[in-house]
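Researcher: Let's try something more involved. This one mixes different molecule types, so please make sure each is placed in the same coordinate frame as the others.
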Amino acid sequence: MAVGIFDSGLGGLTVLDAVEKRLPEVPFVYLGDNAHAPYGVRDAEDVYQLTTKAVERLWEAGCDLVILACNTASAAALRRMQESWIPSDKRVLGVFVPLIEALTERQWGDNSPPREVAVKHVALFATPATVSSRAFQRELAFRAIGVDVEAQACGGVVDAIEEGDMILAEALVRSHVDALKRKMPDPQAAILGCTHYPLMLDIFQDALGVDVAVYSQANLVAESLADYLDRHPNMLGNGVERKFLTTGDPKLVSARATQFLRRQITFQSA
Amino acid sequence: MAVGIFDSGLGGLTVLDAVEKRLPEVPFVYLGDNAHAPYGVRDAEDVYQLTTKAVERLWEAGCDLVILACNTASAAALRRMQESWIPSDKRVLGVFVPLIEALTERQWGDNSPPREVAVKHVALFATPATVSSRAFQRELAFRAIGVDVEAQACGGVVDAIEEGDMILAEALVRSHVDALKRKMPDPQAAILGCTHYPLMLDIFQDALGVDVAVYSQANLVAESLADYLDRHPNMLGNGVERKFLTTGDPKLVSARATQFLRRQITFQSA
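Model: All components are placed in one shared frame. Result:
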């Protein structure tokens, strides 16, 4: 049995990279729905249908534990999937949950009323689609009170990363951090709410300053998975399976993935 | 009879502004399809249906001459509309045509083979959707040979302008110009292929340098319209009608339009 990691495209590879570094012994299957990416422009029903189909594909591949390494899918589909669709012998984790857990210092399943948390001023950097969804602010409000969240929609950053123009990506990140600081001069914490942004973690940290705690989803998900596997040691089998599946063109997706993570990655058809 | 100006949202107001300055006596009706904006995320059939419906609405309002002040609609729908849908007593002009005419120094209706033009290195700045459509490069290739076009998808700029953060918009424009120059160090001409960008014309010119001819669609469309009305003096009636229609919420759209053009604009329901 392996861990399934799903994303609409290649951004989830940063989550996979962090998981591999944190848990080098863990077998995994990555599934990119490149044929239907990006999800950010689709409506919620469409995202739900595509996401459940992809998760079923990973269950077929032997992954009883699936990570939705996709903010759009996590925001638009995970709550509905958890309420009525996921069988009791399977687990689906989103990229949002570990982030909210880290920020509020409480477990996701803790349904007590919202309470005050240490961090009062939070900057959220995400794609325009994730910012408009307000999913992060909504989930946070269920658990914490008195937290001021200022969101910056970082238009252009994902495109620049996908084109491989890291000079442009850095310039855009710095401009978006400046824009955020004009709205919120002293954030205590910053959330990178897009799976592409871990590639720009050092730039965000540098632009924000050393006093700002920068939360990267990739690292938090890897940490959360390590914790989960500690508590469920029989969840996974032996043998380091590493498989990359795509609904798109494997040759094209492999080339782009190799450029994206700066190491050789070979996809096959899902 | 008035000139109809159509856009999916508010960007077309820059075209309207240029038309008003060039032709202060001309009556017009502006129609923003704000209920369905942005068009950039829709497929071609969807854009065609929405655009033809909007143009019919402007015909009903007495506008026999309609300008599609929307790059997405011009790229995805205008050619098809002109081939089979527009009756002989109506005219629909897109924002692309005057641009191609200016760059190639020939009339749109001139169907002779493509030939060499003076400008060899052209920078195109547009939204990611317009860049991916390749409509500009395709139309140019019908008319000119030996022109090298380098496109820069300026992610984030429209969002920043719509949020009213002109400091961020300026920073993003400068970063995108830098990125373009890494790909094409010495462009002779630059095309602003998005109706929002005339608001950033001075920044583009400054970042590109005084030797680069910057083509703004708003000014070119106004010039082209002035030329057309010179040749068809009976096309318009008397009386300076000025009407702003929207498929969205008139109060909300009026507030955003007023911020966008920095003068009072009042929309009513289409």
